[in-house]
Amino acid sequence: MLGRTAALGFEGSKNAQAAFDAVVSVSAECLRQPAKLPSANPTRSFWTHSSPDANPLAREGSHGPLTTDADICIIGSGISGISVAYHIAEAVGNQTILDAPLRVVILEARDFCSGATGRNGGHLTPHTFYSFAVRQNQFGTDEAIRSSALEERTASSLVNIIERNGWSEKVDLVSGGNVCLFFTEDEERGTRTDFECAEHAGINVDDVQWLTRDAVENSYGPPYSAIKIHGHNLWPLKLVTLLYQHAKQRTSEHFDLKLHTRTPVTSITRSSSEDSNAGSTYILSTPRGSISCSRIVHATNAYASHLLPSLAGPSGIIPTRGQVIATRASAGQAPTKTNGWIANRGCEYWFPRLLRPGEETPLVILGGGREASGPQFELYVDDDSSINPVVGKELRKFLPAVFEGKPEHGNEPEMEWTGIMGYTATGDPFVGPVFNFSTGQKEDYEGQYIAAGYTGHGMPRAFACAEVVVQMIIAELTGTQWSRPTWFPKRYLTESRLKHRN
Ligand SMILES: Cc1cc2nc3c(=O)[nH]c(=O)nc-3n(C[C@H](O)[C@H](O)[C@H](O)COP(=O)(O)OP(=O)(O)OC[C@H]3O[C@@H](n4cnc5c(N)ncnc54)[C@H](O)[C@@H]3O)c2cc1C
Question: In angstroms, what is the span from residue 459 Cα to ligand 1's centroid?
Fold first, then answer.
């Protein structure tokens, strides 16, 4: 089923529904193909490659013997996988959950955090009221409120962790908010409707500023009306690195954490009684050998259907390629204001980075442009080893048009890269126990969980979704009953999602 997709920010755009509608025209065979493994030679992103120390864990655990036995295997080392490890470390703390330490192993196909989290736009902006009206209409007021609550919780938890641990400078945290430009009256009207519905439902929207065209022009430059909402930007890879290191430091007699990068999981099979590691349920195969475990967390986002083929197709998780450039702004121009920006209802998003020593003008990280790529909006493209020149052309034109020729036309970006997002028909992630999503059969998947499919808007959602998966696992290990937190949308749960499928 193709649901009406709520408009999202950051690559979840007003065109999302058109994109999904376009998907219908793709041949059925193509729709059902599972995602490939992450490509071997991805484009280089600013976050992973702009400085030699950007990714100290890049090849951690990629040489030497592979761990052969674990309690929990997390597949994927992006914000989802590392948040799972972080929450397990926090939950275990000093308590004994099993008789022996709880052994957690993270398996990553490429370098550490080299998926979407290492290649995104860097915005951590909760959508307090965006898409509220669509969600309210589609899922009811309570669910629309929970969407907002989950995003606020994620963003504030991450900012609290960053500030409490003194990481703000290390992750380049900027709390300048987000200016969302309206290019058309229709966009402004739709946003006003969302705002009013959310306010009426009791969501706190007191800090939202409505800015007239004159106010925006005077303060920022572009001749459009806008709203300003709260939000942050940061260096996602550095945050994820610190979260991992924090979890690793919790290693104790109760908890053990290992990371193996450059170790793609190629298949998952059930272990047989002859297998040496008694008690393990699954064997994960990798080119470096296999590892046994009793629980698995799929934190593979766009690539989830590679190991879970029933998630292939329009009602599962659709790999979708996004593109970003790092381009130098002209001196004294409005993009130098240290806030984030969204335009075209999330089709384009950008922010000027803080000036580094020796820099005279900031580097602007700008993503989007998929609307120029043709009717399929890069849906079903799972290759981040190349860029789309048409999207690149659109991105190069964008800022000079919005900021009246500055940066100058013809400025070549300093870096350009792609990353693969995991799109879903409703825009919502899949969170919870794994099933065969085509048949509903669950027996073959006991002990497997997933948190994936953020539809281009994962930074303010993944950390809390990981928290919920960890709550479920801890409840299972301790023989207690998991109950859904009040801030968690019911429709994100895998169980609720089964009925949305064909
Ligand atoms: C270009 C772009 C711009 C974006 N901009 C923003 C933004 O500004 N703000 C925002 O909120 N969101 C943004 N997003 C979305 C956001 O980046 C994602 O929602 C989020 O990073 C998802 O995190 P994740 O950990 O679930 O997935 P990922 O970061 O993709 O991590 C999944 C990991 O799993 C690994 N993996 C996959 N299969 C296997 C396997 N079989 N074995 C082992 N490892 C495997 C991958 O290599 C990858 O490292 C953007 C995404 C892209 C691509």
Answer: 9
